[in-house]
């Protein structure tokens, strides 16, 4: 079974600074997707960024980018120019051949003004 | 696009009653719907997967007689918590997908409180 590990239960960053959230996963599959979801206090699940495993190029969405290291099974999220609205729980998720999302335990991000 | 509407957003009921949560895909046909449970400060745990017109597939440890899932149409799935007890209190989230390798679109969740 696939597992997703987020080793940082909590992180904090100063407004306008950059922060990186870590995620590692374990799988024997070669084709899969990786996601970062944001869950603000409203508890709505918001897709931040998505990476297909077959793509070598790292995905980027505005201030959000990933560092995808397939051999190391690492998928970190970098948030640049952090904003107060970025404060939330962030979940890393794996999606493979069983078509089910496996979530990590989450990282609570605090943004300090 | 790809909006999933989940109702109610918050429900409080007495122990022993049954509660139904609806999940509707508003602008797409959800071939597959997923139901998750989330305890405070924890991650989402998949409860079951349902395909339109078929019986739901439950994850290990989830009581199928306690959590009844119906997916009778391509736009509606329901989760009924039967004979609910305080330990069933949790946050329940649904998501819908148009196909096996298509992304999941999440509802806004339902906070269930059993007194």
Protein described:
The complex is a heterodimer of chains A (113) and B (115). With 113 residues, chain A is mainly beta. Chain A is 0% helix and 52% strand. Chain A has strands spanning 3-5, 10-14, 19-21, 24-26, 33-39, 46-52, 60-61, 64-69, 74-79, 88-95, 101-103, 107-112. In chain A, a hairpin with a 4-residue loop joins strand 8 (64-69) and strand 9 (74-79). The radius of gyration of chain A is 13 Å and the shape is globular. The model of chain A has no long low-confidence stretch (mean pLDDT 95). Chain B has strands at residues 4-7, 10-13, 19-25, 32-38, 44-51, 57-58, 67-73, 76-81, 90-97, 105-106, 110-114. Chain B is globular. With 115 residues, chain B is an all-beta fold. Chain B is 0% helix and 52% strand. Chains A and B meet through loops of A and strand 4, strand 5 and strand 9 of B.
Assign a percent range to the helix content of chain B. Answer: under 10%
Round the Cα radius of gyration of chain B to an integer and report it.
13 Å
- Give the low-confidence spans of chain B: none
Percentage of residues in DSSP E strands of chain B? over 45%
Fraction of helical residues of chain A? under 10%
Quick one: overall form of chain B?
globular
Describe the structure concisely.
The complex is a heterodimer of chains A (113) and B (115). With 113 residues, chain A is mainly β.
What are the key terms here?
heterodimer; A: mainly beta; 6-stranded mixed beta sheet; 4-stranded antiparallel beta sheet; 0% helix; globular; B: 115 residues; mainly beta; 7-stranded mixed beta sheet
Task: Tell me the layout of helices and strands.
The complex is a heterodimer of chains A (113) and B (115).
Chain A: E1 3-5, E2 10-14, E3 19-21, E4 24-26, E5 33-39, E6 46-52, E7 60-61, E8 64-69, E9 74-79, E10 88-95, E11 101-103, E12 107-112
Parallel strand pairs in A: 2-12
Antiparallel strand pairs in A: 1-4, 3-9, 5-6, 5-10, 7-8, 8-9, 10-11, 10-12
Chain B: E1 4-7, E2 10-13, E3 19-25, E4 32-38, E5 44-51, E6 57-58, E7 67-73, E8 76-81, E9 90-97, E10 105-106, E11 110-114
Parallel strand pairs in B: 2-11
Antiparallel strand pairs in B: 1-3, 3-8, 4-5, 4-9, 5-6, 7-8, 9-10, 9-11
């Amino acid at each position: 079974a696939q597992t997703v590990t987020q080793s940082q239960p909590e992180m904090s960053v100063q407004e306008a600074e950059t922060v990186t959230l870590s995620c590692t996963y374990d799988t024997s599959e070669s084709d899969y997707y990786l996601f970062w979801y944001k869950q603000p206090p409203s508890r709505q699940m918001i897709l931040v960024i998505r990476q297909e495993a077959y793509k070598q190029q790292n995905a980027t969405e505005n201030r959000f980018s990933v560092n995808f290291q397939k051999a190391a099974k690492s998928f970190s999220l970098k948030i640049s120019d952090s904003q107060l609205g970025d404060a939330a729980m962030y979940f890393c998720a794996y999606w493979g051949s069983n078509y089910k999302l496996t979530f990590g335990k989450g990282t609570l991000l605090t943004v300090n003004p | 696009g790809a909006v999933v509407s989940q109702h109610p957003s918050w429900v409080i009921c007495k122990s022993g009653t049954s509660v139904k949560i609806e999940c509707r895909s508003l602008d797409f046909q959800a071939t597959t719907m997923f139901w998750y449970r989330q305890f405070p400060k924890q991650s989402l745990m998949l409860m079951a997967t349902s395909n339109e017109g078929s019986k739901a597939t439950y994850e290990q440890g989830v009581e199928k007689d306690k959590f009844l899932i119906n997916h009778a149409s391509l736009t509606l799935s329901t989760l009924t918590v039967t004979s609910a007890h305080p330990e069933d209190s949790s946050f329940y989230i649904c998501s819908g997908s148009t196909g096996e390798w298509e992304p999941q679109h999440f509802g806004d969740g339902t906070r269930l409180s059993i007194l």
